Amino acid sequence: MKKINRWMLLIISTLLLFGGCKNQDHGNGNLAPITPTEKDNTIEYIILEKENFSEVIEQAMEDYQSQRGYKAWIEKEDNKRKTLVLIGAGEKPTGGYDLEILEVKKGKTDEEVLITVKVIEPKETDDVTTALTYPYIVLELQGEFTHLMVQTEKGDPIPVFQEVEKPSKESKEETSLHSEKLQTTTVEAVFTGYIDNNSFEAEVNNEPQAFRIEKFEGELPELKPGDHIKIMSIENEHGQLMVQGIEKL
Fold first, then answer.
1. Phi, psi of 59 (to 5 degrees)
2. Is 120 helix (H, G, I), strand (E, B) or coil?
3. Structure pTM?
4. Computed from CA positions of residues 148, 101, 93, 66, in that sequence, does the dihedral angle turn out positive or negative?
5. Which of 4, 65, 145, 218 is the most exposed place for a label (fewest CB within 10 A)?
6. At which of 167, 192, 210 does a domain end?
7. In this structure, is residue 75 part of a structural domain?
8. What's the rounded Cα separation, in Å, for the pair 80 and 219?
């Protein structure tokens, strides 16, 4: 009886040994090869709401409103760079159209970005306006991306309005020197009101103009619509008028 038990134990041990070796086969057996997990190349982004649009975005929308395509540019804020992308679907016959971002991912290099977008069309049952509309979407990507491509969900490329605009890579000393060389313009105007916390509007020769005050280090006088003022400003690289001084007349 003991001999039988020993033989049974030996047979079971042998089967377990060969079975274990088979599961670890690295040759051409039936086991699927282990592949490394692919790197996640998706990029985080923010869809900007209209109330957060800067004057640069508003101007870009005005320039390309009725066209289908995209424009991208790089902005610097607090020593950090971000890439803004405006995508327009072009002119549509009715309301109810919209743009949906399906994917934003890196390309072959860290500076390349591929954006996949889908045009949402209105359903037959939707109650939409019969006026012409111009669907658009604005993305903010954290970081500097100099090579962008926007495509439809079918892989068709969307035309580009303008290649990526990059801010100049100046040092702080060069930037300061450049600012000193900018010509300060002084105008008399009539204050019409604040646009937001960073800008106000004033009429210069009966023409409304916007002035930026977010970098103004002086003290603003108390202003109300109709006040006559003198404004000292410089024009930055985006064509914005940056207030350097302001006086009530």
1. -70, -40
2. strand
3. 0.53
4. negative
5. 4
6. 167
7. yes
8. 27
